[in-house]
């Protein structure tokens, strides 16, 4: 049974003790009580330490990391709970078509949904942070809070790993990502070697080298959007474009023409049927140079995720019909702090979560274009 003691109330915003008010009941949790019973601190120190940990935990959950965009792009599903180790989902495609038949025909063509099951692993992601006995004593004497940046660093480390898995998966751990994953993962069925080429017919030249004019760039974007909408028979309507930071900056900062005060981006947003806001064009750090080089002068090499060959590294963009029914991230057990543990002269807080990557339910909702 947890221990209940009297303690000063605390102002939740300023974190100051309300010494002029009546003392309140405070419940010392089991983990801190064990440390008190071990003789490492008294009740007063235990109250201070527990309050500090609770506040630090709240802070670490509130910190935002805008450079990590995986979570903001994909719908998040947290079903399952801590105990599951495998998630099975189906990736769907349509097949079959209606034909003209004889009145007494018995072998009618069938329209159907072709679904393949994928089993993805749920993996544990963990790290830890801690405070020494001296750090705790100094914080209590000075009235200063414990260093929260340790908890924030642990949380950021966790989020960086989640972000990496969302985009690239972890083939060795059977985790699927948006761009990569184990052999046969549905993300790999989206062709990554289609050259962006609009109606002006300028292929295999680059945006940022100046080889492509604003007209060419706009045609690249428009043709990519129309290609998804048309090739899927209007089933998938693109609503998002992913590109590198530099490429979006080029769209924002390059004039539509020498005679125009509009940027390429502003003109494009006003003159296409799919993307109407700059927020629908996501500048993603992780996708720089992941598309195959088609003779456009990319730098370095990468291994093609489709056939395993070594290819040049270049730039491109991806067109997506983003919706939860098309793709979503799975986190059966979100990140949490475990109760504090005493290890030698240090108080250690272990942190962990359970993550399962990205379910690509409908691969046809993703199209990649390179050669820009």
The ordered H/E elements are: EEHHHEEEEHHHEHHEEEEEEEEEEE
Percent strand: 25-35%
Measured as a percent range, the helix fraction is: 25-40%
Radius of gyration: 27 Å
Q: Give the helix tally.
A: 8
Unreliably modeled segments: 108-112, 199-204, 296-307
Q: What class, by secondary structure content?
A: alpha+beta
Total number of beta strands: 18
Shape: elongated
Largest sheet: 4 strands, antiparallel
What's the rounded overall pLDDT mean?
Answer: 83
Task: Name some characteristics of this structure.
about 375 residues, alpha+beta, 4-stranded antiparallel sheet, elongated
Give an overview of the whole structure.
With 372 residues, the protein is α+β, with helices and mostly antiparallel strands. It has a domain at 190-326 and 364-370. It is 26% helix and 26% strand. The protein has 8 helices and 18 strands. The protein has helices at residues 30-37, 43-62, 70-73, 133-142, 149-168, 214-231, 245-253, 264-270; strands at 3-7, 24-28, 75-77, 86-95, 112-121, 123-132, 240-243, 281-283, 291-292, 301-303, 310-314, 316-320, 327-330, 333-337, 341-343, 346-355, 358-360, 366-370. The strands form 6 sheets. Strands 6, 14, 15 and 16 form a 4-stranded antiparallel β-sheet that branches. Strands 8-7-12-18 form a 4-stranded mixed β-sheet, covered by helices on one side. The longest helix has 20 residues, at 43-62. It starts with a strand and ends with a strand. Mean pLDDT is 83; it is low at 108-112, 199-204 and 296-307.
């Amino acid at each position: 049974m947890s221990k209940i003691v009297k303690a000063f109330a605390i102002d939740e915003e300023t974190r100051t003790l309300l010494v002029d008010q009546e003392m309140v009941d405070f419940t010392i949790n089991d983990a801190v009580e064990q440390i008190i019973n071990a003789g490492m601190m008294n009740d007063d120190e235990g109250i201070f330490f527990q309050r500090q940990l609770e506040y630090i935990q709240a802070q670490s959950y509130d910190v935002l990391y805008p450079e990590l965009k995986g979570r903001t792009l994909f719908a998040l599903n947290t079903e399952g709970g801590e105990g599951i180790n495998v998630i099975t989902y189906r990736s769907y495609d349509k097949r079959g078509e209606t034909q003209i038949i004889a009145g007494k025909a018995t072998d009618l063509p069938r329209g159907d949904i072709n679904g393949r099951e994928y089993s993805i692993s749920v993996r544990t992601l963990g790290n830890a942070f801690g405070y020494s006995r001296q750090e705790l004593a100094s914080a209590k004497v000075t009235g200063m809070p414990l260093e929260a940046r340790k908890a924030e660093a642990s949380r950021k480390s966790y989020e960086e790993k989640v972000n990496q898995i969302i985009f690239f998966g972890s083939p060795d751990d059977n985790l699927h990502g948006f761009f990569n994953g184990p052999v046969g993962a549905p993300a790999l069925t989206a062709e990554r070697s289609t050259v962006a080429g609009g109606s002006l017919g300028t292929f295999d030249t680059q945006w940022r080298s100046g080889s492509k004019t604003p007209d060419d760039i706009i045609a690249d974007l428009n043709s990519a959007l129309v290609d998804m909408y048309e090739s899927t028979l209007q089933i998938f309507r693109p609503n998002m474009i992913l590109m590198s930071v530099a490429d979006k900056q080029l769209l924002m900062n390059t004039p539509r023409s020498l005679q125009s005060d509009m940027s390429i981006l502003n003109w494009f947003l006003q003159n296409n049927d799919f993307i109407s806001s700059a927020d629908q064009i996501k500048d993603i750090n992780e996708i720089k140079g992941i598309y195959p080089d088609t003779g456009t002068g990319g730098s370095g090499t990468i291994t093609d995720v489709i056939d395993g060959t070594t290819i040049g590294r270049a730039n491109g963009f991806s067109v997506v019909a983003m919706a939860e029914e098309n793709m979503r991230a799975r986190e059966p057990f979100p990140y949490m702090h475990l109760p504090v543990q005493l290890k030698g002269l240090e108080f250690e807080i272990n942190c962990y979560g359970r993550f399962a990557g990205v379910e690509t339910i409908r691969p046809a909702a993703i199209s990649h274009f390179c050669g820009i």
